[in-house]
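so the lab meeting is tmrw and i was supposed to have these ready like two days ago... anyway. pasting both below. for each one the top line is the aa sequence and the line under it is the structure tokens. i havent really looked at them closely yet so no promises
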Amino acid sequence: MSPIRKVLAPALCLCLAQYLRADDWAAPVTREVFSKNRTYFVRISPGESLGETVGFRGAKVGKHAVAEFFHVQTDRGYRLEREIELLNPIAPVEFFVSNAGDLITLDNWHNVGYGSVLVLYRSNGKLVKAYKLVDLFPRTELDSFPQSISSIWWHKGPMYIDEEQKTFYMGYREAPDYRELILKLSDGSARLCTNSPKYHCRNVQ
């Protein structure tokens, strides 16, 4: 084997291993997330519509993921207030609950970057806003995100609801080119912000 091949072969194997690991998904499970003040929690149970997931054409198309909204009562117990079907065919990858009971879902199981990647629901189950990648980013930026068999890996960094419970923040690029997406919980409007060459934001139309 030539010296160049000796160098390239291990590198290729390493890249391939990382590529495959990125598409090794655990089976979806029922999960619960509490608001910071524990006034609300939301339980999300996986859906059954695998056929709507990229890479599973021909599989069953059925019920989407279901979210149950629970609210604390005067006896400190929780009561189920409502149940809604989400936009996620199987399950969101991450979700967050505000003190007001707002639900933010992020990405889709086995399909990061596909479909509705950022969605805001009210505690009464009302859909406020749903964003796809094409709603958030211009084509030039979309093309810059790394991809794998299953997903478009469009964000890295912290994700959280702020202390005032008015805004959801998520980093989508790492330093030194750190960028963040800011979702306003009152109306679902979004801004994209960057610190290069100086900190500035633009509204998502």
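ok protien two:
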Amino acid sequence: MTTVAVLVAVFSLAIAYLAFRRANAVERRLAETQDRLQDLSAQMAQAAEELREGLASLRLELRQRAGELAFTPDMTIAEALNVHPRVKDVLASFHLGGCSHCAVSDVDTIEGACQSYGIDQKALMQALNQLIAPQSGSSSGPIKVASMKLEL
């Protein structure tokens, strides 16, 4: 009887050991799968950002080809920021955003921000639209924000 009890105990220990090893293997595979999912999630987020930037670039190109202004007073700040990477610099040169006492919301329109902060809307619109306007005597592209400050 003692022999049978010892054999059952040894057999139970062997099964417990195998179950423990199998659980560790499953846990390791789960951790690897979670790491892969995080990598894929990061890649998808990067791809989505690249697609948003590409879409904004295509919209800008379509507007330029159609001869339309890329920026309008009824655009939200968020929409304007998606049109050109230098918009943030232009807005900062007009003291819109970037500091605690003149923070502007992304949902505000350009017109509303100008009214709220006493900014010359015409000058801001001209500066924003110059970002995408071809420059005379040079290749098209964004102009320097510092030169815009002098022109205003």
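from a quick look at the 2nd one: DSSP finds six helices and no strands in the chain. Residues 71 and 80 are 7 Å apart (CA to CA). will dig more after coffe
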